[in-house]
Amino acid sequence: MTHRIEATPNPRERHNLSRKERSNMDQNNDWYERYSPSLPDGARAPKRREPRGVRIPALIAFMLVAAMLGGVLGGLYTRVYVSEQLSSFSAQQQAEFSALSATEADNSGASLSTSVSGSFASSYSKAQIIELTAPSVVGIDIYATVSGYGSRFSGGNNESQQVQSGSGSGIILTSDGYIITCRHVVNGAETIKVILNDDTEYEATLIGSDSRSDLAVIKINATGLTPATLGDSDMLTVGEDVIAIGNPLGELRGTATSGIISALSREVTVENTDMTLIQTDAAISPGNSGGGLFNASGSLIGIVNAKASSSNSEGLGFAIPVSSVKTIISNLIDHGYVLGRAYLGVYTQDVTLSTGSSDGSNRNGNGLFGNFFGSAISSVQIAQVVTGSAADAAGLKAGDLILKIDDMDITSNTVLAAAISAYNAGDTVTLTIQRDGSQLTLNVTFGEYKPAEQ
Q1: What CATH number labels 126-335?
Q2: How much is the pLDDT for 9?
Q3: Does the reported pTM lie above 0.85?
């Protein structure tokens, strides 16, 4: 069978065909109906169909509303989720912090627990800080024996009795009972009692003390205690939040007061000793001495030891920077004294004498006090020389007046102690003394201070 194939005429040539020819062609080729711009005479143009679907402005409005709703709902969900995550992290962090402190204390025995860097340096709320640190702070009561209770006239037996003579605070250093406090709190005590945060009482033993740093370590027979975590006071900045916890007035154990670091490296004289201390505006009262100053991560950064006593001052409390005394604390625990402290080995007394010359010598030879009408000067007189001490080896004698240590004038026992504290055991100095109206110079090599030589 033979198929006939005809070429499709050009649409422009359709207008040259007769109506009959166009009709016959259209019956065989529907392309014309669909694409030809011209219609046969009398033919009806097909109706234009309206596009279906959503109009573009409506679609845009719908998308904007959906985006706004999605943003609001997403923001609410994100806020709730982040809040839950932060709360969970804070609780986990606190638990890890407590576990770390307990683990370090249990594993180290008498060693000191120190803070760590990283996430544990984060801040806690004040309530959390107090909850973490309050069990590490104790109250201390001091007792001394007083005689004469009762009277023969009143029927009493005139017996001696121990009475409370002072109080203060302390900080637990180890889980087995080592406690740090201020030397001036326990100095001269016959009996020391420690009251824990849970009101449990123990009698304490003095392990060692150091007058230069105003620190003392005592020990109670207990286990499972909560030691403080020692922080880094060298990293403090003025304005940083702190909390002081102690035993104000000797009656209000566990009292917490808050403030800021008001100043660093303050030069303050405490118990006739020049010290470099942290200043804070946290409320400090008598009885707070030996208590703790804690930073925002719950680490011990200061040991409270002084406050301004003037009626014109408010918010002036001071604390010993803990980083400056970590070695001292360890020495007191391990040895009962601080290694390397210079020791002269004399007992002295303040004297005021008159002299006929401005250099302190008695050239008129009228005895120890020189010319009655001479000018008065203050000095230190040796009352006793300790046998075998540095002073004994240098040839110092009772009755000698100590006028100078190197180039520093010695006018009182306080000045003498401050001068000696500037040296270490093994250092050699030149002492200028007066003996029998004449000045002498002696070279003295300091020994090492030990409690047995007190």
Answers
A1: 2.40.10.120
A2: 47
A3: no
